[in-house]
Model the fold of this input.
Amino acid sequence: MQTEDRLARDLDWCLASQPLMSSDAWCAGLALPGRALKLPAPPHPHHFRLGQHFERLLATWLSASPDHELIANNVQVQDGRRTVGEFDFLVRTRQGVEHWEAAIKFYLGCGDGKSLADWYGPNTADRFDIKYERLVSRQLVLSQTEAGQRALREL
Done:
């Protein structure tokens, strides 16, 4: 299998996968890239990190998208010397500037799987309910904090 074909399939999978949180309009607006995109070469297999691969693919797609402008990605937000968060992607769309949080995670369900606490990541401390709460209470509201506002003004 050619590396370019694999990368294009990886990106197709990323864009077509069901998002954790989004509006239906946003999901419908994600066009699959076709094979014309120049995709980033993957790192050596021994240095491969799925999350970083996913973010590189998404950044490449955003950079080539006629409907999205990638303003910045992986912007660290500092409060003094302490890192309080990161803007994964700052994207300009027809609706304005948006903050996108992007992650790829795998969880296995235990029990009946009806509770978010029933889903575990690589270890028992990595539960979906904990990740989700952090996403909602810290990452998605980062732009509303003083430190987040400061970081956005600096851009």
